[in-house]
Design goal:
InterPro entries: Aim32/Apd1-like, Thioredoxin-like_sf. With about 270 residues, the chain is α+β, with helices and mostly antiparallel strands. The protein is built from seven helices and twelve strands. The protein has a single domain, classed as Glutaredoxin (3-Layer(aba) Sandwich), CATH 3.40.30.
Amino acid sequence: MCVVHALTSTQTVCMMSADPNSFEAIRPKLTAQTLQDIEGLDPQKYGFGREECCGPIPTKIIGSMSLREHIFLNTRMPAREWDKRTENVPGFKELSQRVKHALPDASFTVSHLDQDTEDSILHCKVDDDKKAVIITQYSSVSEPYELPWEVKGTLAVDRSGEYFIFVCSHFTRDARCGYCGSVLIDLFRHALLEKMGAGGTARVTVCSCSHVGGHVYAGNVIIYSRHGGICYGLFKPEDVLPVVDAIAEDKGAIPESLRNRIRGQMGSNAS
């Protein structure tokens, strides 16, 4: 935004407000690990200064992702260590084959909770009777890597009352995702703590995830809650606060500023 002040009849001064998506604006909120991870990556090429982020929003972004039943393998291995196909993540190859066979329409994605917890499975699916998305976490991911709901005695925890924000941060798949995803995770955590405090952030988990398609649309952000699932593309730092405000209100609202960047939806908030 350009603010013009008249000094004389012939002299003006134009004061430019800082770009909220610039590296200078976001750097104070980034962790040392993120700064290390994105070191050497040009923001104009891989970050939020690239042409597809700054130019007109492409109409083909709408509906470019089919959002449906989604299964996440939560691993302690951080995103920067995943190989291109996440085949070095323990259990991925075995479980992906089992998901493909048992639930061919489901998506299977690796995620990192950034917490000192055991590996687990998070299952997000629509419950037609309840008209809501049910989110269930299953413990004990270990050999021979069976689907947990098919194994007797597996502990299942209903987490449908919470929010899960998954941000594609798959460095080895595409540097744009690695750069944008790492930055957005830090910004989300910072904004959630400021807006909702420690108690509120206990209800909202923010984590990196592996490739979800559409590198050109980085940052790619998927949010699951009982209200539904939604994927945004070309997500920028300035979009973080509107989403956090909507989460704090907990009504399943979609920020108007993001409606033209919805890649896919499922559940009760799908339009």
